[in-house]
Amino acid sequence: MLSIPIKLLMTPEGAYKEDKLGQILLENKRLLQGDVMLAVYVMYEFNKGKDSFYWPFLNMLPKPGWSDVQLQKFEVIE
Hints:
Number of helices: 5
Distance between the termini: 39 Å
Structural class: mainly alpha
Helix content: 40-55%
Radius of gyration: 13 Å
Mean pLDDT: 86
Shape: globular
C-alpha cells in the first residue's frame, strides 16, 4: 500500500491557507470550487516557480503551452 502524507498533497485546505490566494478563494467561493479551485491553486503554485514547495512536482508535469502574455495574467495576485 502506498501512503502519502497529507502535508504533501495539494488540497483545498492548503489553498485556503495561502496568504494571498486563500483570501481570493474565500471571496469567490461560489465560483471557485472543486476542480476549478484546485486548478487555480496549481496555476498559482506553478507561477511561483522555484519558490513553490510543490515546484519539484510541478516542474515534472507536461508544460501547458501558456504564452508569456497568459502567464503574466497570473502574476496579478502576487
